[in-house]
Write a structure and sequence with these properties.
The structure holds two protein chains of two kinds. Chain A is built from three helices and three strands. In chain A, a hairpin with a 2-residue loop joins β2 and β3. Chain A is elongated. Chain A has a domain of 68 residues: Ribosomal Protein S8, Chain: A, domain 1 (2-Layer Sandwich). By secondary structure, chain A is α+β, with helices and mostly antiparallel strands. Chain B is α/β, with parallel strands linked by helices. Chain B has two domains: 58 residues, no CATH class; 290 residues, TIM Barrel. In chain B, the strands form three sheets. Chain B has a nine-stranded mixed sheet with strand order 10-8-7-6-5-4-12-13-14, with helices on both faces. In chain B, α5 links the parallel β5 and β6. In chain B, α9 crosses α12 and α12 packs parallel to α19. The longest helix of chain B has 20 residues. Chain B is globular. In chain B, 48% of the residues are buried. Classes of the chains: A alpha+beta, B alpha/beta. Chains A and B meet through α2 of A and α15 and α16 of B.
Amino acid sequence: MDTGEIKREILVDERLYSRQAVKLAANIYADEMKITLSRSGRFLRIRVSGENESKMGEFLNEALNQQCRLDLHGKNGKVAQIIVTKALLSAMGENVKERLV
Amino acid sequence: MAPGAKGKNSRAYLLNWRKVSGKRLITNDFGYFRFLSEKEFTRLMSGTSNLRPALHQDLSKKGFVRNWMDFDSLSETWRLKNAFLHFGPGLHIFVITLRCNYNCLYCQSGALPERVHKTDMSFETARRAVDIAFQSPAPSITIEFQGGEPLLNWKTLKKTIEYARKKEVSENKELSLALVTNFSLMDAEKAEFLLANEVSLCTSLDGPRKVHDRNRPYSKGSSYDLAVKWIKYFMRRHDTQKGGSRIFKPSALLTVTRFVLRYPEETVDEYVKLGLEDIFVRPMSPIGYAARVWDKIGYNSREFLSFYGKVLEYILKLNEKGVRIREKNASLLLEKILNRRDPGYLDLRYPCGAAVGQIAYNWDGGLYTCDEGRMIAQQGDDVFRIGTVHDEYESIVKSGACRLCALSSNLEQQPVCFRCAYKPYCGVCPVYNHEAQKSVWGNMLSNERCAIFMGIFDLIFKFLQDKKKERILKKWIPEK
């Protein structure tokens, strides 16, 4: 029976796309397609099946977006953390700041 | 030290750039910008020794040259630009009721029919909400009442205003009160009470009568007539005030639906006619109920920007003739760009205002990062809930949703934003991203909100290259 489902298998180099980035992207698209991951040497084997082929392209774009974000975190994580911590502590008020100091 | 002494070894310091109308716009985290020719840009990027002395000096002063950083001055500039990082939530949005007597086409707030009384905020809930608002470490706070149509729950609204004003005295904290209303239930008695309590009033005005009435159907008459009648009334009261309580000018918000796009000049004329000096051309977001009807009333970024450009051009023409009117998006951004100051625009900053800059209090006592977060909850998704009015203030700010928004809206960790020339002035919205792209982080390369703000920034920086337009735009913001 033809279910109209499209299946694709993609191999990506784990030096470019980390497993974490692909998982994060998969989590976003989990409602729209079935995604399974497995290892194959230094490659990640991604099996996707769904009804919308363009969504598969979007999923890969999202994996790239997540990888860039993770890379940026490695570079800027400390600065980013300082800014966020400052905003949160200020919102909590002086009492909290004093207690933490 | 004169330029040149260290010039040979100097390099450009962290900067972002973008081509705008044939020039290279460079910006940095301190909020400074400069337009460069291609030749100047190439010279700067390959070392600063070949730059004209005057240009070298200007770039050094603005923190663009690595060996010429005046750290004291630059860090002070950064601190002022990001002043919001030092305070807590200043804006407290009270959804006094979800009921509404209008049937607006897009209603993003998820209003319910007039008869559904169960969604009115009780005074007990409102009192606890005021108590939480006053626990914010912000030296001054604003409580904004909205709905639904808040005047439908007048009893709670009135008592809450009285309570908040008393609390202002006992807590010694500056308090501003604002009411967003469609004016349909306004009468002389309510007006006097609101004016006596220095409540600023804001309504919706979506342009000419035919557009406004189409956007905001009202079974008992013209919503446009009611808005105009009361804008005039409060404008007259403002203009003729003599001491006593301060009476603020009424203001209006424009909700740009697809129907408004056809009337850029007529929409501005409506505002001018009523003596309103600001028109806030805000794009609608496909959030909450609006997402469901987006194919009927929505538009893409290109369509919105075409409208926005026409509005801005027309306003500048009117300004040339001496007519006082400003576009609010542009004036807020100009304050950031030209004065390097935080205008308190919660949507465009990082981290965004979610819970660290504002809190939305739902009628049932549920607390959310912002009003948009509350609207999503109404559709069944509680991801932006930060607690209830019965919780301790500290636990609200410590909530997972608050931290999630602060982290995900930090442009230092957004791949595209990090390299964007508009980063010093911009911000992302985790709620929009969650709704439109299914992740609070979003993906800016295909993000329509990002495309809209990029377009607005492009237009502003294009105008800032035109001396005549620049002169007018500078008048829109306080002189530094």
